[in-house]
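call fold target=Mitochondrial pyruvate carrier
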Amino acid sequence: MATSKLQALWNHPAGPKTIHFWAPTFKWGISIANIADFAKPPEKISYPQQIAVTCTGVIWSRYSMVITPKNWNLFSVNVAMAGTGIYQLVRKIKNDFATEAEPAVAKE
């Protein structure tokens, strides 16, 4: 049974013998790098970079469900990209706007 599932994956139109498998597989590197950046201070987060990561994730997630054959690897990596991009944008926005809104306490 395991052999037939492995053989089905190998012979799938978006399987390891095609670019449709390897391109999304290597794209996971962007999501992993974005996860590693969670430890980065919010001041160092770039709006243009995170907007690009988020938009790429949203647009290509939709596209991966429209094409034939459905490419679940492409879908999952782009959902991860959109999720990590949104998280980073929220961190940056909170840092930029929440810290500015805090009133300064007068020191005596």
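return ok
Residues 53 and 69 are 24 Å apart (CA to CA). The chain is about 70% helix and 0% strand.
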